[in-house]
Amino acid sequence: MRSRTSNPFVLALYWLGIQSVWGAILGISLQSRSIELSGADALIAYSRLATIGALVAAVVQIGVGFWSDARRRKGSRRIEFYVAGALGGSAALLFFYLAPSMASLTLGYIGLQLALNLAIGPYQAIIPDFVGRARYGVASSWMAALQSVGNAVGALAASFIGGARLLAGFLSALLVATCAATSIHVRGLSLQDAVAEEAPAPLRVTRPFVDLFVSRALVYAGFYTLLGYLLFYVRGVLGIAALADAKRHTGILIISFTVVGALGAALAARPSDRLDKRLVATVGGGAFIAALGIFIATSGFSGAVAATIVAGLGWGVFLVADWAIACRVLPPAAMGTAMGIWNIAILLPQIAAPAVTLAVLQRLALTGGPLAPRVAFGLALGETVAGIAWLWRLSRQVVG
Question: I need a surface site. Which of 154, 196, 313, 326 has the fewest CB within 10 A?
């Protein structure tokens, strides 16, 4: 007989492994590998590669969402998707880190996006699959906290593990181990009865769904612009030109961001269950916006650290509210599909943020030099403000 008591920490462990990979790749390695293989054209190469990868991820997540929901209605706990993503991702990591050219790097990155996004959509349905509605805030706080910890672990690994094989091996081992822990726990749980008994129904795209999607996409556009151009900011604005030193300093900033983000997630857990979730998200978004302003204004590493701490705290708070709102708004009977579409609100910014930023920088003839990252962060600030404002189109009754 299966247990009906889920452990939110163990449910969220696989998110730690997945986010460790993305913390390394999106925060450090995609940029540094572009610099290694493209030299002076690195910013352009990075922007194009980031866009290609996000396009692949978007297609995979939509397709796998329908598939996982069909499996779910037959009693599947979606574990097969978790395992396939972990094993495929491990192989793709080695290919990515050993790629000798931009062409092979592109293939490795596409493979990584294919594998991990096979798991991400089905996995993100884990809270409504196994957690009661009254505990969504607490469960979401664990997901947000381990996302932050994972990003920190990945950034730390990419900054300080020197060998490509060793780095790929470490990330692969963490991905597989966390997948195993979560999968074993899930095998002993019962599906939430209200969800398990719902008849198959087509996904309805409601106005709250659309508003949540647009708001999330705008906020994440700001996040990915900050993350994607941070290494270029460290080199151009802070004046740390040597790539190895720039990677270490960027890693310190990302680690600070994610560790403080875990604190923000912990602080937001109970408020997200008890208060208006839009208000909690706005507090977090407001801190992130203020931090972007500090980044733009400062030219020293100490100022960048201060901005990073404020941004991380705000981002952790926002993530908890974001998860909790989604678990309320998205339809339980089609949660895998809905999560796949909801995740497009993360993937579209990965496509649009570098593409829009590159277009603006090229228009202003600023693809190099210290002003380029500041312009990029200015765009991030505007995108985040728009996203938080859009969130208030959701009614209090809808978000709970």
Answer: 196
